[in-house]
Design brief:
Distance between the termini: 8 Å
Strand content: 15-25%
Mean pLDDT: 95
Number of strands: 13
CATH topology: TIM Barrel
Radius of gyration: 18 Å
Number of domains: 1
Low-confidence stretches: none
Helix content: 40-55%
CATH architecture: Alpha-Beta Barrel
Oligomer: single chain
């Protein structure tokens, strides 16, 4: 059965508002409630603990911690504390970060080599914990996907590398993403299960947007900002956008699992209610 997650945004949320959002996500059938890690949002670990307090069933995740924001020893302490409070409900998501302005505000280098090195350093520190929660690593490039293939329980595909010409990330075609999946699978092919990890990692995809509509072509055109250089046909094919009726999107998810191996789909906060109608079709 497909796992469904939602990244909830806690920008300026009160305790009451945050508890309500988490309970709403649970009622819609989401299996994972994840918190992001951005400077303009509430801190991820306190909001994760509060999400667990508000709900009973969902796993509580981080999607994803920016490795450059966290020192290894301090993150190990936070992870150990949070895992102790949440029990087996914590999923730890890590990534390199991608918002250049946040790195500038924090006085941190943004070059790719440094960001990947910091991620690898954190992963190494977490591997030394006596008990490590399930680990998700998200990204797109060879170095991050290779790291995920060696260490993660779940590899998350963003399908959206940083594009200097746009000053932000942008979606790639379905074919390009399929190549990334093949690369990660090959890199993970020889690993042995260790430290509680499965020998074969689960594959996750991050959906940028969901649009419920009877006109799929018009729907994807409204999302062109996510992929300025893709054609309409290419936009209709990418697994990182979900456009159509709930039944059509449900079928897309089934087909994407068969084609790409995605058994875990994460959507953004803005899509939560609409995507809940898709979950109904798949349960």
């Amino acid at each position: 059965m497909t796992t469904f997650g939602v990244v909830l945004i806690a920008e300026g949320a009160t305790r009451k508002e945050w508890l309500g959002r988490c309970r709403r996500a649970e009622s819609l059938g989401f299996d994972v409630i994840a918190v992001p890690d951005h400077l303009n949002l509430l801190s991820p670990f306190p909001t994760a603990v509060l999400a667990a307090e508000a709900t009973e069933r969902p796993t509580i995740g981080t999607y994803v911690l920016n490795a450059s924001f966290h020192r290894p020893a301090l993150l190990a302490r936070d992870v150990t504390t949070t895992a102790g409070l949440l029990g087996d409900r914590l999923e730890l998501g890590l990534g390199t970060g991608y918002v250049r302005a946040e790195f500038a505000a924090a006085g941190l280098p943004f070059d790719a080599a440094t960001r990947v090195a910091r991620l690898a350093e954190l992963v190494g520190a977490l591997e030394r914990l006596p008990v490590r929660p399930p680990l998700l690593i998200g990204g797109h490039g060879d170095r991050v996907l290779g790291l995920a293939a060696r260490h993660a329980d779940t590899i998350s595909f963003t399908g959206a590398p940083y594009r200097p010409e746009y000053g932000r990330t942008a979606l790639v075609t379905a074919g390009a993403l399929l190549e990334r999946v093949a690369y990660a699978r090959a890199a993970a092919g020889g690993r042995a299960g260790a430290g509680g990890r499965a020998a074969r990692p689960r594959l996750n995809v991050l959906s940028k947007a969901t649009v419920l509509t009877g006109d799929r072509r018009a729907g994807v055109e409204s999302l062109r900002r996510y992929a300025p250089d893709l054609t309409t046909e290419e936009l209709l094919e990418v697994p990182t956008l979900h456009v159509g009726t709930p039944a059509q999107i449900a079928e897309q998810i089934r087909m994407d699992e068969e084609r790409f191996g995605f058994s875990y789909v994460t959507v953004m906060d803005s899509a939560m209610d609409d995507f809940g109608k898709v979950i109904e079709r798949l349960r």
